[in-house]
Structure formats: structure tokens, C-alpha cells
Amino acid sequence: MRCNLGEVITAMVTPMDERGNIDYEALEKLASYLADNGSDAILVCGTTGESPTVSNSEKLEILSSVKRAVNDRAKVVMGAGSNSTETTIRFIKEVEREELADALLTVVPYYNKPSQSGIYAHFATIAKETTLPLIMYNIPSRTGVNMLPDTVAKLANEFKNIVALKQSCPDMDMISELKIKCPKDFVIYSGDDSLTLPMISIGADGVISVASHLFGKEIKSMIRNFKTGEIVAAKNMHAALFPIFKKLFFAPNPVPVKTLLGYKGLIKDTVRLPLVALNCEEKEQLISVYNSITV
């Protein structure tokens, strides 16, 4: 298998202080906590890490801090995508110079809505410019365009450093098509916690998760149980965690997960504008669901 990032990758939040400055001490503590609680790898500066409002210099410092905190206990994946191919490549070159990232996550270009040929050219150009493993990220609800299985398969078959796909789309038929058309060692990650078990049941390999901030060991157990034939145990864990899987997205990500991490005392729940904190009623609802989870 050309992807060795494991089954549970946590899309990590970026802790901030009351003024909105990055709290690097909390960042390192959280990264260490995740590495000890089910995360095989940590994705930094993805959407959950508030990448749209984090500068490139901050992103590189975040990468350095997280790598230092986890050492060899977890892999570190860098969120490095944008809707400009040239801008993406320039930033990837900066990341490569740090020699700290184990892989890159690059999103389908958003807002400009390229054709399938344009999506192919975007990722092909990036793949030619880096030796780092690439995880492509398909999330039509944010990008406005869906990367189709034929496009994924063409890229996966032509470029050995395109190693995986994060699929945030509820179309299960696409997973089946991807498994048929892509190389056997090409890895598919669910990009939605609630779809992890359904996707794994038809061939996906793991999850790039938000809920693993809170239930990393349980999500790892669910995946392992399914793969070792303990189907009932996997289904029961999915059912137990399903309410929090859904509630973590009742407001814009990462506001709910930051709220719960603040409730647990792991970080402050500060987010940068244009995101805003939950109101008191929303916070009470979220905490009530979290406290109701028994696993």
C-alpha cells in the first residue's frame, strides 16, 4: 500500500486565545492528546483548522509545533489546497522546505468550478511539482463541483504520489465505482464521521475525522471491529456515536467541536471571524448531546 497514514486521521482544530491569536502551547498539548487517543495521523490547517483565516506563516509554525509535539507517535498531514494551482504549488514548495510534513491534503478548486478536465489538470500539475504523498479532497458542498470517479481513477493510475482521496459526499455508488476503477493500493477516506462505517462496508479504508477529537479510540475501535469481522460491535459503536457525529455539524465547523474541547478544558473555544461562537441555547444543546453519549 502506497499510503501509510493509518485509518484515523484527525482534522485538527487550531487553538486560539481570547484575542484570536494562535495558542501554540494549547496546540502542542492537543496534538499530543490526539496522538495518544486514537489518531494515526493529524491533519493541520484543513477547514477544521480554519485554514481560510490562517496565514501561510502561521500554517508553517503550526506544522512545526504539531510535528514537535507528536514526534513519531503520529503522522502529520498538511492542508495545502486552494482554488489557484499556482498558489497551491508555491505554498507546497514552502512546506517541502520545512521537511516536516508526511503528506499533503489538496482540495478540489472551489468557487471557480473547473470542469473535470480542469480538475485533472490541477492535480496532475501539483503531483508533478512535489514528491510528497497527496490526498485529494472532494467536497462538492463547499467547492460547488464534484470530482467524478473517472477523474479520480485517471489521476490515481497515472501518479504514484497521489495516494488517497478524502471523500465528503454521501453518494455510496461513487465509493463502489472508485474501488473498481482505482488501483488496489489507492486509499479512500470518509470525510464525514457519520458515513465512515457505511463507506468502509463497501471498501473505504478509514476516516479523516472531526469527532476523533473527542472519541478517537472509539472510532478506531469501530473501524477495526468491522475489518476483523466484529460487525455487530462496529454497528453498535456507530449507533452510539451517531448523535454526536451529526450534532458536531449543526453549526459551521469547527465551532461545535471547539465548543466541546473548551468544555473539556483542552482549549479555549475561540474562533476567527467570520465564524462566531454558539449562543447559550446552542451550547447547552450540544453539551447535552455530548454528555448523553455512552460507549
Name a few traits of the molecule.
alpha/beta; TIM Barrel; 12 helices
Report on the structure:
By secondary structure, the protein is α/β, with parallel strands linked by helices. The protein has a single domain (8-230), classed as TIM Barrel, CATH 3.20.20.70. The protein is built from twelve helices and eight strands. Helix 2 (56-70) links the parallel strand 2 (41-44) and strand 3 (75-79). Helix 4 packs parallel to helix 6 and helix 6 packs parallel to helix 7. The longest helix has 17 residues, at 231-247. The two termini are 32 Å apart.
Short note summarizing the structure:
The protein is of the alpha/beta class and 295 residues long.
Q: Termini distance?
A: 32 Å
**N-to-C order of helices and strands:** EHEHEHEHEHHEHEHEHHHH
List the domain count as a whole number.
1
Q: What is the count of β-strands?
A: 8
CATH superfamily: Aldolase class I
Biggest sheet overview: 8 strands, parallel, barrel
- Global mean pLDDT: 97
- CATH class descriptor: Alpha Beta
- % residues in beta strands: 5-15%
> What gross morphology would you assign?
globular
Which spans have pLDDT < 50 for at least 5 consecutive residues? none
- Could you say which structural class the secondary elements and strand pairing correspond to? alpha/beta
Q: What is CATH's topology name?
A: TIM Barrel
Strand order of the largest sheet: 1-2-3-4-5-6-7-8
CATH architecture classification: Alpha-Beta Barrel
How many helical stretches? 12
